[in-house]
Design a protein that fits this description.
The protein is of the alpha/beta class. Helix content is 24%, strand content 25%. Strands 2-5-1-6-7-8 form a 6-stranded parallel β-sheet, with helices on one face.
Protein backbone atom coordinates (compact mmCIF):
# COMPACT_ATOMS: atom_id res chain seq x y z
CA UNK A 1 0.00 0.00 0.00
CA UNK A 2 1.10 3.53 -0.74
CA UNK A 3 1.07 5.93 2.21
CA UNK A 4 1.17 9.72 2.33
CA UNK A 5 0.71 12.04 5.26
CA UNK A 6 -0.93 15.35 6.00
CA UNK A 7 0.66 17.06 8.96
CA UNK A 8 0.70 20.48 10.60
CA UNK A 9 0.04 22.25 13.85
CA UNK A 10 -3.40 22.51 15.45
CA UNK A 11 -5.86 24.63 13.42
CA UNK A 12 -3.67 24.46 10.32
CA UNK A 13 -6.39 22.89 8.17
CA UNK A 14 -5.27 19.24 8.26
CA UNK A 15 -8.69 17.63 8.71
CA UNK A 16 -10.38 19.75 6.06
CA UNK A 17 -7.58 18.99 3.63
CA UNK A 18 -7.79 15.27 4.45
CA UNK A 19 -11.55 15.27 3.87
CA UNK A 20 -11.19 17.04 0.51
CA UNK A 21 -8.32 14.76 -0.56
CA UNK A 22 -10.28 11.59 0.26
CA UNK A 23 -13.23 12.86 -1.79
CA UNK A 24 -11.00 13.99 -4.68
CA UNK A 25 -8.87 10.84 -4.86
CA UNK A 26 -11.75 8.38 -4.44
CA UNK A 27 -13.62 10.41 -7.07
CA UNK A 28 -10.77 9.55 -9.44
CA UNK A 29 -11.41 5.85 -8.88
CA UNK A 30 -8.73 5.04 -6.29
CA UNK A 31 -9.46 3.25 -3.02
CA UNK A 32 -8.38 5.23 0.05
CA UNK A 33 -8.18 4.51 3.77
CA UNK A 34 -7.15 6.95 6.49
CA UNK A 35 -5.29 6.85 9.78
CA UNK A 36 -5.75 9.74 12.23
CA UNK A 37 -3.54 10.25 15.26
CA UNK A 38 -5.20 11.73 18.35
CA UNK A 39 -3.18 13.32 21.13
CA UNK A 40 -6.02 12.95 23.60
CA UNK A 41 -8.30 10.28 24.91
CA UNK A 42 -11.24 9.60 22.64
CA UNK A 43 -14.21 7.27 22.54
CA UNK A 44 -16.08 6.06 19.49
CA UNK A 45 -18.62 4.25 21.63
CA UNK A 46 -21.54 5.56 23.68
CA UNK A 47 -22.29 4.82 27.33
CA UNK A 48 -25.25 2.49 27.70
CA UNK A 49 -24.77 0.79 24.32
CA UNK A 50 -24.11 -2.96 24.40
CA UNK A 51 -20.60 -2.58 22.95
CA UNK A 52 -19.73 0.07 25.54
CA UNK A 53 -20.97 -2.21 28.31
CA UNK A 54 -18.73 -5.01 26.96
CA UNK A 55 -15.68 -2.71 27.05
CA UNK A 56 -16.49 -1.40 30.51
CA UNK A 57 -16.81 -4.99 31.74
CA UNK A 58 -13.17 -5.52 30.71
CA UNK A 59 -13.16 -6.83 27.13
CA UNK A 60 -9.86 -6.17 25.38
CA UNK A 61 -11.51 -6.11 21.95
CA UNK A 62 -15.10 -5.49 20.92
CA UNK A 63 -16.09 -6.11 17.33
CA UNK A 64 -19.34 -4.46 16.27
CA UNK A 65 -20.77 -5.53 12.91
CA UNK A 66 -23.81 -4.70 10.81
CA UNK A 67 -24.79 -4.78 7.16
CA UNK A 68 -23.26 -1.31 6.70
CA UNK A 69 -19.99 -1.35 8.67
CA UNK A 70 -17.63 -3.14 11.01
CA UNK A 71 -15.94 -1.44 13.94
CA UNK A 72 -13.22 -3.01 16.03
CA UNK A 73 -12.48 -1.27 19.31
CA UNK A 74 -9.36 -2.30 21.15
CA UNK A 75 -8.56 -1.26 24.69
CA UNK A 76 -4.85 -0.88 25.37
CA UNK A 77 -5.38 -1.41 29.11
CA UNK A 78 -1.95 -0.01 29.91
CA UNK A 79 -0.10 -1.43 26.90
CA UNK A 80 1.90 1.05 24.81
CA UNK A 81 0.32 2.81 21.84
CA UNK A 82 0.86 0.70 18.69
CA UNK A 83 3.47 1.93 16.22
CA UNK A 84 2.18 3.39 12.96
CA UNK A 85 3.65 0.50 10.95
CA UNK A 86 1.71 -1.96 13.10
CA UNK A 87 -1.50 0.01 12.62
CA UNK A 88 -0.98 0.11 8.86
CA UNK A 89 -0.52 -3.67 8.84
CA UNK A 90 -4.06 -4.03 10.27
CA UNK A 91 -5.69 -2.24 7.32
CA UNK A 92 -7.22 -4.01 4.36
CA UNK A 93 -5.37 -3.38 1.08
CA UNK A 94 -6.19 -0.12 -0.71
CA UNK A 95 -4.48 2.05 -3.31
CA UNK A 96 -3.56 4.80 -0.85
CA UNK A 97 -3.57 5.34 2.90
CA UNK A 98 -3.69 9.00 3.92
CA UNK A 99 -2.27 9.62 7.39
CA UNK A 100 -3.26 12.65 9.46
CA UNK A 101 -0.75 13.57 12.13
CA UNK A 102 2.24 11.37 12.96
CA UNK A 103 4.54 14.28 12.12
CA UNK A 104 7.66 12.50 13.41
CA UNK A 105 7.20 9.34 11.33
CA UNK A 106 9.37 8.87 8.20
CA UNK A 107 6.63 8.62 5.53
CA UNK A 108 6.32 11.46 2.98
CA UNK A 109 3.97 14.27 3.97
CA UNK A 110 2.41 17.53 2.91
CA UNK A 111 2.21 20.21 5.59
CA UNK A 112 -1.02 22.14 6.03
CA UNK A 113 -0.13 25.69 7.06
CA UNK A 114 -2.24 28.71 7.96
CA UNK A 115 -0.64 32.04 8.77
CA UNK A 116 -3.23 33.01 11.42
CA UNK A 117 -2.18 30.79 14.35
CA UNK A 118 1.37 32.15 14.04
CA UNK A 119 3.09 28.76 14.21
CA UNK A 120 6.41 28.07 12.54
CA UNK A 121 6.68 25.70 9.60
CA UNK A 122 7.41 22.11 10.50
CA UNK A 123 8.96 21.74 7.03
CA UNK A 124 12.02 23.74 8.11
CA UNK A 125 14.56 21.01 8.71
CA UNK A 126 12.19 18.10 7.96
CA UNK A 127 12.90 16.40 4.60
CA UNK A 128 9.86 14.10 4.96
CA UNK A 129 7.65 17.12 4.26
CA UNK A 130 7.64 17.16 0.46
CA UNK A 131 5.33 20.17 -0.04
CA UNK A 132 3.26 22.77 1.82
CA UNK A 133 -0.43 23.57 1.39
CA UNK A 134 -0.77 27.15 2.63
CA UNK A 135 -3.26 29.99 2.86
CA UNK A 136 -0.44 32.50 2.39
CA UNK A 137 2.33 32.78 -0.23
CA UNK A 138 5.60 31.17 0.85
CA UNK A 139 9.01 30.92 -0.80
CA UNK A 140 10.58 27.57 0.07
CA UNK A 141 12.82 24.88 -1.36
CA UNK A 142 9.82 22.65 -2.13
CA UNK A 143 6.42 23.08 -3.79
CA UNK A 144 3.84 25.34 -2.16
CA UNK A 145 0.17 24.88 -3.04
CA UNK A 146 -2.87 26.95 -2.20
CA UNK A 147 -4.47 25.19 0.78
CA UNK A 148 -7.78 25.06 -1.10
CA UNK A 149 -6.40 23.78 -4.42
CA UNK A 150 -7.36 20.19 -3.68
CA UNK A 151 -6.98 19.04 -7.29
CA UNK A 152 -3.37 20.21 -7.57
CA UNK A 153 -2.50 18.77 -4.15
CA UNK A 154 -4.07 15.43 -5.11
CA UNK A 155 -2.15 15.47 -8.42
CA UNK A 156 1.09 16.02 -6.49
CA UNK A 157 0.44 13.25 -3.96
CA UNK A 158 -0.63 10.73 -6.62
CA UNK A 159 2.49 11.52 -8.67
CA UNK A 160 4.66 11.19 -5.56
CA UNK A 161 3.33 7.70 -4.77
CA UNK A 162 3.20 6.58 -8.40
CA UNK A 163 -0.56 6.30 -8.85
Amino acid sequence: MKVYGVTGWKNAGKTGLMERLVAEITGRGFSVSTVKHAHHSFDVDQPGRDSHRHRMAGAREVLLASGQRVALMQELRGAPEPALKDLLARLSPVDLVLIEGYKREPHPKIEAFRAEPGNHLIADGDPTIRAIASDTPLTLDRPVFDLNDTGAIADFILAEVGL
